[in-house]
Each structure stands twice: as structure tokens, then as C-alpha cells.
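Cross-posted from the bioinformatics board.
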Amino acid sequence: MTLAPDTPPPPGDSAPIFGTHLFDGCAAAKGYALNAMCFSFNEAANREAFLADEDAYCQRYGLSSEQLAAVRARNVLAMIEAGGNIYYLAKLAGIFGLNVQDVGAQQTGMSVDEFKAMLLAQGRKAGED
Amino acid sequence: MARIIGGYFTSHVPAIGGAIVRGDQDEPYWKPFFDGFPPVREWLEAERPDVAVCFYNDHGLNFFLDKMPTFAVGAAHEYRNEDEGWGLPLFKSFAGHPDLSWHIIEQLVGDEFDVTTCQSMLVDHALSIPFELAYPDAKQWPLKLVPIAINTVQYPLPSAKRCLALGRAVHRALESWQGAEKIVVIGTGGLSHQLDGERAGFVNPDYDRFCMDSLAANPEAICVDSTKEIVRKSGSQGVEILNWIAARGALGAAPARETHRNYHIPISNTAAATMLLETA
């Protein structure tokens, strides 16, 4: 099949997706300071500086009060709401010793064991189909 | 004349790097995933490609939101990995192939793909892990690299249709390259997974099967959806299938032959897949 150059987006494209936050220009602008701080954590010295004085480090990057509160609360959904992008937030989560499954559990309100079990169950179900 | 031997497609979950370092390949959790790689290694051992053209997405190692190219082509002599900030092992460097990179860039821009060019470019786990999986015993990589990064991070993302067209333009560039190299095309990332939001942990094996079934003979079928619809079906990070679609495009418009497939849920939060396509 070939696609016409002016193929329109399919209907329903604007419908929201449950539990999914597209990181668009609005979010990227809102979250710039928070994501810039997270990007700095590629360097070990910056991770150590954050751990040594978290508030001072956050201030250096000019986090908004909403971003500051989300970081203090270790609340990933609140960080996303404040413009955080998961690829960058993962670096912050790493400082707290959290991997993507810990982060997934937190966002879905499950325990980490429940979250892992949910993924394994999906694998078993896919294997049966 | 240069020859494209085919395409190698695989997920690039960061945790795979940790599993390799720990030697967990035969652990029950990891074995179904790592069992997908002996056919990849045998094929590469038999074909011995000289260059890899690899489509991937950066995860905040080389690119930040200050400057976020939609399509970026590496033209460096060397590509290093660096600390990604979350305890991953440091991966080996790649030798570049700047002459081929500039040829591809010239051809792409001539073809009206106005790409960003990078003479200095760090490559992250999304690029390194597929090579670690394919060449587990290599002291240094036995092939040169042309990396092509696609923005899958900040919307608007390029459409699947556009990524397929980009890949096909890369194919035309490779066909007009006068070198004698054997070239393997690589697409990394996916398949369905979602790390962020209340829907974290979402996977969709039906959609993944549709994508894998379409890849060889009818990649256009995946391209009718907008990127938002792809996210709906495959998760926020499942949209990394864009890298696979571009890589498929670089194999050319003719139907390809699927020679290997492995699919397993879960690796970390991801429905992990590995495929080989050969050109006719």
C-alpha cells in the first residue's frame, strides 16, 4: 500500500490516553529547570553535590515551588505534572536508588512486588494467546 | 559496490546492561530474552558487516531540551559512551565512518531531509546494548558506526510515515555509496512499554505482534497511525518503534525476508523483541 502525502491523522487522535502525559512543548517549557537539573546528574560530582545539600542544589537550577515540592516528596507523578520528563527524571530516581519498576509501582499505587507480578502476568497471558 | 546485508532489530532496555555485567544470561528471568541472540550472532559472524547504520533515540546523554533535533546524523571519527547517571556500566567506544556519514548527509539533504549533523556525539545504552548483545565477546567492535538519532522524547515527534521515508532516503544514499563495505542496518528500542504516568507497566502484545508481522513485507501498515495513536497502542516509550520503522525503510522498499524473531514479556517494564530481516 502507499500513503498519500496528505494522509490526515486518524479520527480520535485528540482523545486523551489514560494515565499518559505527552511531553509536548508546553511541558518542555514548564519543566525546563527540573529537567536541566536531572540532566546534570549525568556527572557523578553533581549527584554527590545534590545528596550533600539537596535544597541548595535545587535552588541553583531555579526549580519552581511546584517542582521543589515534588522533588522533596519524591513524588514522580507530581514531578511529571510539573513538567518533568521520565528520561531525565530516571536520573534523579537513580540517586534515590529507585529503578523504573520502583517508579512504576509508585505511579500506579502498587507495591513493587505487585507491579512486577502484574508485568509477569501479562507475559504469561501473552504466552497463552 | 556496498551491499546492505539486512536489518537487526532489538529492544534496548537499560537493565540488560546490568544483566550482562552480572552474567545473568541464564537466570530464569533473563534467559527467554538472551535466547533470542544466538541466531543474530551466527548471522553477523557469517556475514561480517563492516559498517552499522543504527537508528536509535538518545535518553538524555547527548541531547538535552536546549537543542533537540528531530533527526540527527553522526559524522564523528569516534563515538563514546559516558555516565548516564544511573549506575549503568560504561560501554565501549565506536569508530565512526565520517566519509560515509557525510555521503549520507549530502544525499539526505539533497532528498529534502534537512537533518542535524553531529561531529561530536555521545551514544547511550540505546545504541550500545544492541552491540553488546550481538558481539558479546568483542574486545573492540568489529565494525564502524553511522548513528542516526530520532527524537522520541519531546513532542511533536516525527510521524511513522516520515520515519519510513527517512529510512528509504538513507537506503538510496547507501545504494549510491561507492565503497565496497557490507552494511548492516540496526533499529533499537520498543516494543510496547510505558515508564511514566498512571498507565506505567502497560504493554500490548497484540499490537507488538501486528508490528512484527508487518515489518518485513508491509511496514506501511504501521505508518497509518499518528505518533499519538502509536502511543495509545504501544505506550509512551513504545513509540520507539519509530527507530525500527526508519531502519526498515533503510532496507529499501522491496519486501524483506524475516529470518528470526524472539518476543518476551517482561524485561523490566518492557515487551522485548528481537528480529532479523534479510534483503531479497
